[in-house]
């Protein structure tokens, strides 16, 4: 209770790694599930402190919020993932500063990201965001559009298609979320038959990462369970 926040964060990180390990074993998963630490609203100092534990991958929702952190922490060699909606006018900055874009959801972004990915960097890793619950308020492409969008990404040498991402509707009933995870897994398997190189299914957050892993997630995105609750004003 009297622990400094830093210590609490490190302990939460160790606890989540253990829980991920247990869930992966229980679900008979051959490969370790990757943890993406969602650092939106957190400072560069908080990210640096968590990076000391060996955590490499960090997720940000807004390009503008992420750029100063990416700049400040460049020498740490962290892996930055954009997980929020990408506006077309921010795509050039995203292509220069992130290692992964998990929120590609429309054809227009493909060419812009490819054109702006600097020649000196490896290809930009891309996940297609799918609006799996068909929510009017959510970004993401329709499941029916995944194949064509994937083909477009795969045709760009400066992009590397890695898989799919989803944010299922936050049903209080975990069984409903599980249905969405299962539908994502089916989409992922179908896409893998078409693009055998893909390896990443990004789904599951603080509240539901265990069922997500049980249904096939290879990467979970965790913010509040790691860093503590976000201030309500900036909560997403
Ligand atoms: C904020 C956010 C997360 C993390 O959510 P928590 O509930 O804090 O773990 C994961 N994915 C996306 C896309 C987010 O915006």
Automatic annotation (TrEMBL):
The keyword Cell division does not apply. One of its GO terms (molecular function) is pyridoxal phosphate binding. InterPro entries: Ala_racemase_N (IPR001608), PLP-binding_barrel (IPR029066), PyrdxlP_homeostasis (IPR011078). The modification N6-(pyridoxal phosphate)lysine is found at residue 40. Gene3D superfamilies: Alanine racemase (3.20.20.10). Residues 23-231 form the Alanine racemase N-terminal domain. Its cofactor is pyridoxal 5'-phosphate. It holds the Pfam family Ala_racemase_N. Keywords: Pyridoxal phosphate. The keyword Ubl conjugation does not apply. Pyridoxal 5'-phosphate (PLP)-binding protein, which is involved in PLP homeostasis. Belongs to the pyridoxal phosphate-binding protein YggS/PROSC family. This is Pyridoxal phosphate homeostasis protein. It comes from Thermomonas aquatica.
